[in-house]
């Protein structure tokens, strides 16, 4: 009697597997596959429809993606650095600020090129995916310097929500930190963190963002880490984030 085939849902498409492992974006992972840089079980695979099943060993440029010990880093990202592992224009990358880290790390979510502050980097793909997924509502807090002096109605509107072409954008909490000349500093907490969400919301209200800095993710704070410097997550910080990720897994 013929044995039943392994259920397809247990396998992941190769480009998805590589992206989750932090190799690069799915599109660039497809390029690596087509160039013969990827092997499954020691065999070069160029088929973009190939799938990876549990227990199979995947290598990229000879590096075993399954053999690395997971690492977790916190970086104070300066302006001008990209949160990607590949840029055709060869602009500075956030991971370039951690040359001492031998593992193939990638950023957990993104801060746009003009933003700065707290950024997590890891090689734990599953952990990162759980923290990044918007439906689990991990709080991220930012300090934003904006042009002008926002009114109470503006603050209320940010929490109520502002419609854009991508749907409704909204903050969970907003408060004024201080006035600075003709500008203001706001503290804004988000639960989703869509692309350039804070900049787009404030632009709709007529307040251009001059400077944007992320200061916390969940209970993890940037504190006094110098700009451009990185450190390993402390034990309690990692435990806190793992707890969030585990709760996310339970909710799926």
What does it look like?
The chain has 252 residues and is of the alpha+beta class. It folds into 3 domains: 8-64, RNA-binding S4 domain (Structural Genomics Hypothetical 15.5 Kd Protein In mrcA-pckA Intergenic Region, Chain A); 72-134 and 226-251, 2-Layer Sandwich (Alpha-Beta Plaits); 139-217, Pseudouridine synthase. Helices cover 23% and strands 29% of the residues. The protein has 6 helices and 17 strands. It has helices at 14-20, 26-34, 125-132, 152-160, 197-204, 235-251; strands at 12-13, 38-40, 43-44, 51-52, 58-60, 63-64, 72-77, 106-107, 116-122, 140-147, 162-164, 167-169, 173-180, 183-190, 209-217, 220-221, 230-232. The strands form 4 sheets. Strands 7, 8, 9, 10, 13, 14, 15, 16 and 17 form a 9-stranded mixed β-sheet that branches. The chain has a 4-stranded antiparallel β-sheet with strand order 3-2-5-6, with no helix packed on it. Strands 1-4 form a two-stranded antiparallel sheet. α1 crosses α2 (26-34) and α3 (125-132) packs across α6. 29% of the residues are buried.
């Amino acid at each position: 009697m013929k044995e039943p085939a392994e259920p397809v849902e247990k396998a992941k498409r190769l480009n998805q597997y590589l992206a989750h492992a932090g190799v690069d974006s799915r599109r660039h992972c497809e390029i690596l596959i087509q160039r013969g840089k990827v092997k499954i079980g020691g065999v070069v695979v160029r088929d973009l429809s190939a799938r990876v099943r549990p227990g199979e060993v995947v290598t990229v440029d000879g590096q075993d993606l399954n053999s690395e010990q997971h690492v977790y880093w916190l970086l104070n990202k300066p302006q001008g650095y990209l949160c990607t592992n590949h840029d055709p224009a060869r602009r500075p990358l956030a991971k370039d600020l951690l040359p001492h880290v031998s593992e193939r790390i990638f950023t957990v979510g993104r801060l746009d090129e003009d933003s700065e502050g707290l950024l997590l980097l890891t090689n734990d793909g599953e952990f990162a995916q759980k923290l990044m997924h918007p439906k689990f509502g991990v709080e991220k807090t930012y300090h934003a310097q904006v042009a002008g002096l926002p009114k109470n109605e503006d603050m209320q509107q940010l929490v109520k929500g502002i419609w854009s072409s991508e749907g409704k954008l909204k903050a969970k909490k907003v408060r004024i930190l201080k006035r600075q000349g003709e500008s203001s500093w706001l503290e804004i907490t988000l639960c989703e963190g869509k692309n350039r969400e804070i900049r787009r919301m404030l632009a709709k209200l007529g307040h251009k963002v001059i400077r944007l800095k992320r200061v916390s993710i969940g209970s993890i704070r940037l504190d006094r880490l110098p700009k451009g410097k990185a450190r390993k997550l402390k034990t309690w910080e990692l435990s806190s984030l793992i707890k969030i990720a585990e709760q996310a897994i339970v909710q799926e």
